Amino acid sequence: MFSIFKDLILSLPLSSSLTQSEVVLPVGEISNSPLVDxxxxxxxxxxxxxxxxxxxxxGKPKVEDDHHSDHDHGSSHDSHAHHGxxxxxxxxxxxSAIVATTASSxxxxxxxxxxxxxxxxxxxxxVASAWSWIDAGDLNVDxxxxxxHLSAVMCLVxxxxxxxxxxxxxxxxxxxxxxxxxxxxxxLFLSAMLILVLGDNLLLTFVGWEGVGLCSYxxxxxxxxxxxxxxxGQKAFIVNRIGDAGFxxxxxxxxxxxxxxxxxxxxxxxxxxxALAIEVAAILLLIGAAGKSAQIPLYIWLPDAMAGPTxxxxxxxxxxxxxxxxxxxxRLAGLFSAAPHALLLVSIIGTLTAFIAATIALVQNDIKKVxxxxxxxxxxxxxxxxxxxxxxxxxxxxxxxAFFKALLFMAAGSVIVGCHHEQDMRKFGGLFKYMKFxxxxxxxxxxxxxGLPYGSGFFSKDSVLWATYSSTGLASTIEVSNGIFxxxxxxxxxxxxxALTAFYMTRSLFxxxxxxxxxxxxxxxxxxxxxxxLLVLSVPSLIFxxxxxxxxxxxxxxxxxxxxxxxxxxxxxxxxxxxxxxISMWVALISAGLSGLIYTFAKGxxxxxxxxxxxxxxxxxxxxxxDELYNLVIVLPLRGIxxxxxxxxxxxxxxxxxxxxxxxxxxxxxxxxxxxxSGTMKSSLSLMFSLFVFIILFWVIL
Amino acid sequence: xxELGLHFNLLISAILFxxxxxxxxxxxxxxxxxxxxxxxxxxxxxxxxxxxxxxNNINGQIFVFFVMAVAAAEAAxxxxxxxxxxxxxxxxxxxxxxxxxx
Lengths: 702, 102
Known about the structure:
The complex is a heterodimer. By secondary structure, chain A is mostly helical. In chain A, α6 (149-172) runs antiparallel to α13. Chain A is globular and about 110 Å long. Helices cover 71% and strands 4% of the residues of chain A. A three-stranded mixed β-sheet of chain A has the order 1-2-3. Chain A has a two-stranded antiparallel ribbon with strand order 4-5. Chain A is built from 28 helices and five strands. By secondary structure, chain B is mainly alpha-helical. Chain B has one domain (6-90): Orthogonal Bundle (Helix Hairpins), CATH 1.10.287.3510. Helices cover 76% and strands 0% of the residues of chain B. Chain B has helices at 6-26, 30-55, 59-89. The longest helix of chain B is centred in the last third of the chain and has 31 residues, at 59-89. Chain B is elongated, with a radius of gyration of 17 Å. Chain B starts with 5 loop residues before the first helix and ends in a 13-residue tail after the last helix. The interface between A and B is medium-sized, with 12 and 14 residues.
């Protein structure tokens, strides 16, 4: 039965080219000519169709009575149904959830098929061109997708983790009357993200880039009846626009100098570009990446984005969309490698972001806010790796982070649902007793993110730190103090951040799952749909790096051609690497252990410390007052200028002079001239005669 | 023509024309205004005839016949209008018929 199905697929005219090229080229011989496989076109198409279908089959939202609907959307941070007691969470999936999850799983299956095709070693990449999109003079853009090692890894993460999150969302949103809308957005996001990753030119990538931005906005403000959610959506959208402007300008710069928008063409011509132009283009693109990937100075939208439903936080604002900045930089690795100053900037920004976000996460009490700042911090780590020129390591961390952060977010969502839509960790405690599966998953996630030995975060974070330490870029030529170079200083900050990470994650774990329950009501374990993805993700969070870390790095290095590591094995011989690894391991262990001890036995200690260091505590609690600073430096002056222009141009020039002015001119002219129109023959005649006389006199005199 | 001279004739016609204009502008009775218009037309006729003789060209005199014919037609139409104005407003004073006042 299955083989018939397979034959059917392969016999489709669309895929015939694949079978042909498999026949022509002997397996094992690497050819650089890309494989043409039209199945690739279906990869973003499936979720797109899924989005349409899941909206259409959903029908009208179930009518809720007005009393409840106000209550639902107006009362709680992250709640859609306050009135649900635990048995109201049924595991039955709505039709739109089924459609959306199916579409997402199908694209995962397709990704696996393509991955296998790519893995057979026939070619470096699979391409599929739908049509010639823009053909205007020098600008030729095809609607073309490219599936290579880099996008393969991203696609696997997007569709794989995406499918699990879809399944999870079907449980999380079970009570929500607007599920069709939700799942349509979720599938639309997948489609846009796949276009972003697969686009063979920057313009197509930009389409996906804007698409995911749109979906992010729509999903953050999903419960838009509450003003805060709508505002958070707008904030994300506007901050992202700033980044997008950078991306666009960078794209224009590259097109100006290379005459192409395709990454491969651009990278081939990079060395003909003036050095300054390379730096400028890289920095502009970096602004774009910083917007999407929530780096300083544009990270402020991400913590607010937690206003969206938790599956959205897991899918978009932790696992996939926010890594697209890292992806884009890795895609243009050759460009950034040729721009040492831009790379230095990337390292510094990444390190600062990682550190600052980690310090803020230390004092947050909202479990989702902790995870949000932790995401910003981890994204900072990815930028550190990229800044060191180790693109494959950055993507390695993208993958492991996608596992454990999606897991943590979903576990947090499960806790939130289980505790009747409470997000404050001070009202949790002792939940392990009530929610065993969620608890185990959260422990796995915490273990991984804290960088404890042999968890997946351990290897990827170590690689990032080692990449920073051993970087030969510009950072290694700047001496910050006696004998210590900037890259070593950045490594130090990285280690400190890793310690902070272990500390605040363990803090959140102990506050949530251990001790005694401090909330009200009885917590309960959530439905199968929610727990299953958690357990599935726990496995790679713990062992992925141990089993497949080297494979992944080698696989990625295939594309990014980064000379970092040169195989992980060579490193194991390196003495310094061993020392650093040991340091970071002990730092994480001690930090996590300390945190565990404090939040188990010395619960009063944090309060004492915070009152002792109250200025610092307030600074952290106020999130370094970055929002306030931006308000003061950017928003207020902008409003002032807008006010001036509003009065000067809108009120005075347009409204006053042009609109009212023209009506006044007509009015005055009318009142004056109507006197001529007395209707008496005499006045008309005398006017006529005097005009005649005037004309004749004029004529005569002339 | 020789006895009176070109300038004399033109002066007469100019004076007649000005009397006509003055009459049109100052009088209120529509019939008087109408008569004054006739006066102006005749002043113009006199000019035309004068130049016709002076330039020895018959066109001017032919034109005068046209003017007279038109003036006759105009008199008929004009008087009809005045008559209907009187029927509607019971007056022929031009100032009192001011329906078109803006």
